[in-house]
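User: Hi! I'm working on a homework problem where we have to compare a predicted structure to a textbook description. Could you give me the structure for the chain below?
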Amino acid sequence: MTERQHSKNNRWLRGALVLLALALATILTALPARAETPPWPESPFSYLGKEQQLDKMLVGFAKAFGLQIRIETPLPEGLAAISGRSAAATPTEFITQLTAGYGLTWYYNAGTLYISRANERVTRMLPTKGMSGVALKKAFTEMGFLDARFGWAEVDER
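Assistant: Happy to help. Predicted structure tokens:
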């Protein structure tokens, strides 16, 4: 292979990796929900609050399981304080119902519960045929494309 062909192949590979990285950066905003299973038991959960704002209730939920919380978007303003007992079949069901009721969504990764607006999330799948997850992660790390907020998850071939 000549120097010129080698250079052209390298440019093509770099360009393809950049496009793949951009597509996966979009995907990774939704994939972290698969990165880790939340550390709570799948058993009945109840929460008792007295005149609590939504942000305090979310913080209380996270603290109940020893988690950090990161609210990535402004919460709706002018909400009435929440009082009383709320119960669900599982903590997952509780946090899903609570956040959905306010147009929010959540995911858990690396000891942190992330909260954001549901309409800000996009899910896209991009096949990575011919490149293993390990190789792709290494390439993205070397190029500086990975964002620690989103973790890393690999989905089995379907």
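For your comparison, note the following. DSSP finds five helices and five strands in the chain. The helical segments are 3-28, 32-35, 54-64, 91-100, 133-143. Good luck with the assignment!
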